[in-house]
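so my prof wants the structure for this chain in the tokens format not the other one, which i didnt know existed until like an hour ago. anyway here's the sequence
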Amino acid sequence: MILKEDAPFAQKNSQQHLSMKKTRIKKTLCKLDKHDIEENIDNIATLVSEPKYLCLKCARVSTKKKYLCSPIKIKSLRLP
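here's what i got, hopefully its the right format
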């Protein structure tokens, strides 16, 4: 239960949480090191949850092609 006097605090926390979710990964998934992965694990999980693109160099997947170094759309692949 949020009291009226607590409402601005709750709203501020909610905004901080949303802004943390919007953090962008600055490298392609192909070039992330262990430290980058640990810092961005939530964002990475979102990017790979419903993949649309596959990297032709390293076989990583992502929902957006800008996060792969050599992306190809998965739907364009000929599967048996």
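also thought this was worth mentioning. The chain has a mean pLDDT of 79.
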